[in-house]
Specification:
alpha/beta; 48% helix; six-stranded parallel beta sheet; 9 helices; 6 strands; 2 domains; HAD-SF_hydro_IA_YjjG/PynA; HAD-SF_hydro_IA
């Protein structure tokens, strides 16, 4: 492999989204006197959030519809009455609060320290522009990366080829010398492979099975075997 550029996804790959999200909801619900059992809320919210993010990637819902809809649908499903004004407030406060919590997956710093002198490192994320950089700065990984490409800055989301081509152009990288590392088979891995980048799938969910013919790791430090 003649790899010179390594592109990472952020959420669910380096930054432990589920753990940080749970802590953010805990803080926001307490501040707004939302008296729901958090585990029961999250059990419903997590699959709804994934559904809305898929719709968002496919340009079928707006950012605002995602933020409101995933909360509204969850509260409705658990029969907890919340006004639209409060849902919108929670949506705003949740996004603002996410970066207050900075749990990373085990091995993040060790891996980035291992890679930083060997490759140019970059981020490609579908996350919101206003929060992704803050997450990286607060979790002390911002300085490892030469470029941070967000879907907001491109105008489309992974797996749209425009995102990967834009990232290659900004990073002055050739696709045959680049590799994408991420958790989403659809957005990160197949999206990258479709435009000619190599890819490594971070399969951190035990419920998922290994996909044949795709480089797969089950922990971050396993990436060292490929790079």
């Amino acid at each position: 492999m003649n790899i010179k550029h390594v592109f990472f996804d952020l959420d669910h790959t380096l930054w432990d989204f589920e753990k940080n999200s749970e802590l953010a909801f805990q803080k926001v619900f307490l501040a707004n006197n939302i008296s729901v059992e958090l585990p029961a809320f999250l059990k419903v919210y997590k699959p709804l959030n994934k559904k809305y993010w898929k719709l968002y990637r496919e340009e079928k819902v707006t950012k605002e519809a995602l933020r409101y809809g995933r909360l509204k649908n969850t509260f409705d499903a658990i029969n907890y009455t919340v006004s639209d004004d409060l849902i919108n407030l929670i949506a705003i406060e949740y996004i603002a609060t996410l970066a207050d919590f900075n749990h990373l997956f085990d091995g993040t710093f060790e891996l980035l320290d291992y890679l930083k002198d060997k490759y140019k490192l970059h981020i490609i994320t579908n996350g919101f522009e206003e929060i992704q950089r803050k997450k990286m700065i607060n979790s002390k990984i911002h300085h490892y990366f030469d470029n941070i490409i967000t879907s907001d800055s491109v105008g489309v989301k992974k797996p749209n080829p425009k995102v990967f081509n834009f990232a290659l152009e900004v990073s002055k990288a050739k696709k045959e010398q680049s590799i994408m590392i991420g958790d989403s088979l659809e957005a990160d891995i197949l999206g990258a492979l479709d435009v000619g980048l190599d890819a490594i799938h971070c399969n951190f969910e035990e419920s998922k099975k290994e996909t044949s013919k795709i480089k797969t790791v089950f922990s971050l430090l396993e990436i060292k075997q490929y790079l």
